[in-house]
């Protein structure tokens, strides 16, 4: 009797494995951090073998700790850090280079050149993405260019390209696949036709022999090799981690929104059965494909979310641990006029300014570390409010609440301020491991462990609801001040 679904949540800094039962409750969890490599300024790499071995170890560990035999596991689902680019030898399964991580900026100039050549509008129309080094296309082109012999070998069909889902699926089952949601983050995939885009493959110089087969987010990909867990388990669910979290938050209807407050913040809104062409610099992306039906999402991300609080801890040393920020922020009655724009790595959506830099404005002799902590917490909410504003303008559909998850969503002060700024309730669910839960749901649906989206949507439960309390004119005034602070941070590095 199968009693669990196993979710593999392969994140940027750690690999996690979580077992879920029929009620969608976690029955065990194992997690392992793995090394980050920064070989040059702006470069971020992972060893694909670290990704695989840490993921395999935690999967085995969670089964062992929970005393669950692999034969009791109905299915495996993968949720993964997206865009990160892996290239490996098809015959041996050995990577030919380090993985280029989504945060890596080495191809920024290649993107500038494509922009100057007028390619951005076409790329956006076909892929729904902003022309940026964030996505896989220029990373793969870089590998084909710089790894000795790679292009010739790729053209002969000897190499496989994939995002992290693809890499894990290959190691687990031997098949070279990716799901539609991950494919939509490569900048090589046409989100309208749901297939690799010949025009973009030509533009980036990518031979189609390296590409994975595109599968749905919820379908049987294959069985795991028997030796991995002692018993084969069907791999039946794959989605990019932010799409998986949106699914795990049960955002199944147009206008439903979730925001994940992790290192960065990733806000996604269900956009319906057709992609929405953003006019507000958001990304239009595939959510998931299930039983032939594709749902689309609008996405906005900010680079510094919870990481702003880490900076207070590690950079300024004014708190010992992240959770201390709440007490320090509440040690003052308000922000005292201080605004922080944490553009340490430029600004993401909706500004997309790689030259913006961190700014602290409005300080007086009365400013204390309490005000700075308050401004840091508020900055997370201001940045997220800008994303929701852009979404409301793009989607032209009412937003009635926002569902929150991620480490910084534990901060009640942040959640309350966020609700105040948005003017809609912010709701925190009971199960906060929404990324893994979404992957489990996608996998479980494919094998009949859960029968329908309605059944899984009914499992979603609120832990706490934060109602907006701020008057409209105060909200408008604060957002206007924030906009002035952002103005001061933009373009800074370009004028150095
Ligand atoms: N109480 C808190 N208030 C604000 N930020 C917090 C709090 N607790 C944790 N964080 C932040 O949340 C982030 C970790 O969240 P997590 O969801 O684990 O992130 P990720 O998956 O991106 O590694 C860290 O950046 C940390 O600073
Ligand atoms: O690994 P995470 O959770 O920070 O997510 C990374 C995103 O998928 C990048 O697009």
TrEMBL record:
E.C. number: 2.7.1.30
Highest taxon listed in the record's lineage: Bacteria
Oxidoreductase among keywords: no
A GO molecular-function descriptor: ATP binding
InterPro entries membership: ATPase_NBD, Carb_kinase_FGGY, Carb_kinase_FGGY_CS, FGGY_C, FGGY_N, Glycerol_kin
NCBIfam families: glycerol_kin (TIGR01311), PRK00047.1 (NF000756)
Annotated GO biological process: glycerol catabolic process; glycerol-3-phosphate metabolic process
Protein name: Glycerol kinase
Domain Carbohydrate kinase FGGY C-terminal span(s) in chain numbering: 258-446
Family as reported in the entry's similarity comment: Belongs to the FGGY kinase family.
HAMAP family assigned to the protein according to its UniProt record, in alphabetical order: Glycerol_kin
Activity modulation notes: Inhibited by fructose 1,6-bisphosphate (FBP).
Reaction catalysis annotation: glycerol + ATP = sn-glycerol 3-phosphate + ADP + H(+)
Primary role: Key enzyme in the regulation of glycerol uptake and metabolism. Catalyzes the phosphorylation of glycerol to yield sn-glycerol 3-phosphate.
Cellular compartments per GO CC: cytosol
CDD domains, A to Z: FGGY_EcGK_like
Assigned keywords, A-Z: ATP-binding, Glycerol metabolism, Kinase, Nucleotide-binding, Transferase
PROSITE patterns assigned to the protein according to its UniProt record, in alphabetical order: FGGY_KINASES_1, FGGY_KINASES_2
Record: residues binding ATP: 12-14, 263, 306, 310, 407
Protein residues bound to ADP: 12, 16, 263, 306, 407, 411
Species assigned in the record: Zemynaea arenosa
Residues bound to sn-glycerol 3-phosphate: 12, 82-83, 134, 241
Binding site for glycerol: 82-83, 134, 241-242
Pathway: Polyol metabolism; glycerol degradation via glycerol kinase pathway; sn-glycerol 3-phosphate from glycerol: step 1/1
